[in-house]
Amino acid sequence: MRLKLDPSQIPFLLAFHRHIRLTHARAQNLNDYFQGDFEKAWKSSLLELQKAGLDHKGLKKWELSHTHISPQKEFEDLQTKNIQILLRGQKGYPLSLDHMHDPPPILFMKGNLCPQDFPNLGVVGSRKITHYGKRALEHLIKPIIQSGVTITSGLAFGTDFLAHRTAVENGGRTIGVLGSSLDHIYPNAHQKWAEKNLEEGRLVLLSESLPHTPLLPEHFPIRNRIIAALSKCLVIIEGTTKSGSLITARLANDQGKEVFALPGDIFSCQSQGPNQLILEGGAHPLISTEQLIEYLGLKPSNSAQSAQSEIPSCGIEADILACFEGSNIYHIDAIKRTTHVPQHQLTSTLILLEMKGLVKNIGGQQYLKTL
User: Fold this and answer.
1) Which of 177, 257, 276, 288 has the highest local Cβ count within 10 Å?
2) Distance separating the N- and C-terminal Cα atoms of the chain
């Protein structure tokens, strides 16, 4: 189905979407029967809509509320809020969605998608991401971002937001697919961050929901199919066996996409989901960035290569890095005891190593070796 509409028809399409939430099947039936004339469809009788193939649930919604909606006001509201409309089959609609099962006939967007946003990498996982999950996510996708790949996720707490933030902090772009409408970013805690990065051109937000649409739990698993379809491949960081990230993984499987899952501790409930996916053959075990680089057809970024080349072989910096040979994490006091470097010099050297991307301060005066 292609929605090749005269611009004057768009307000009526929006009104239908407000009323009955246009699925692929509903939009196709109306488009085919009324030959793209959604104004005629809007003004038709209940019997005529039934003849057009509108399902019973859609007919019931129509009968209850359609007299209370103004098509023109729906259109003007989007313009006021600077929200763009993407129609399937028209310019700007992501081609990767066009071939999925049940593609959204209409999407709403803030920001602007760029050609370089495709292909991109989808990253999802637990809202209760562990320290292990955080370390793995940042380690695995940082070189991907530095190679110019856009990261797609759902802007939720935990894994999603860390993926978006890691993209922005490493100079990349990111796409957030919302279960909420664009005028009410959920969760609220991410509203200011989203506004800032929209303004700076690092973030694009997509949603199937019109402004003022009530936030319903069923919208979140529905949006997961879009995350899966937008991505060339999908990374699952953590999640229980009943988490939404596993739903996204199975949707990606159904779409023929490759899925990579982070294997984890068998005693951690947050690793049960990825471990189960790997066991069932629904995902490749993700143990290195090179797997993703190879699948995405990338070359290691200049940033990653230059950081590697800056690893010192002698001097105080080399002595500090040598402390990490037995463990990836060290407290500053342990480093001081091992190296005998004076406190002021140790602190300044650790800052320098962090600027080079060789270590990271993870809080509590603990440092993580990153390369």
Assistant:
1) 177
2) 49
Residue 11 and residue 5: Cα distance in Å, rounded? 11
- For 262, phi and psi rounded to 5 degrees? -80, 115
Residue 187's CB is within 10 A of a number of other CB atoms, namely 12
pTM (predicted TM-score): 0.80
Nearest to 230 by CA among 253, 257, 254, 209: 257
Q: What is the pLDDT of residues 69-87, one digit of tens each?
A: 889 999 999 999 999 999 9
Cβ pair 194, 203 in contact under 8 A: yes
Q: Are 110 and 204 in contact (CB under 8 A)?
A: yes
- What's the pLDDT tens digit per position in 125-157? 999 999 999 999 999 999 999 999 999 999 999
pLDDT of the residue at 306? 47
Paired tokens of 53: 């193939």
CA angle 238, 244, 248 (to 5 degrees): 90
Tokens of 337: 């005891």
* Dist. CA 155–CA 50, nearest whole Å: 38
Dist. CA 249–CA 14, nearest whole Å? 31
Residue 113 has pLDDT above 60, yes or no: yes
User: What is the phi/psi pair of residue 78, to 5°?
Assistant: -65, -40
Averaged pLDDT for residues 38-48: 92
Question: Could you say which DSSP state residue 1 is in?
Answer: -
Task: Tell me the three state secondary structure of residue 171.
Answer: coil
Q: Which helix (H) or strand (E) holds 350?
A: helix 343-355
Strand segments, DSSP code E, in 1-147 are 84-87, 106-110, 120-124
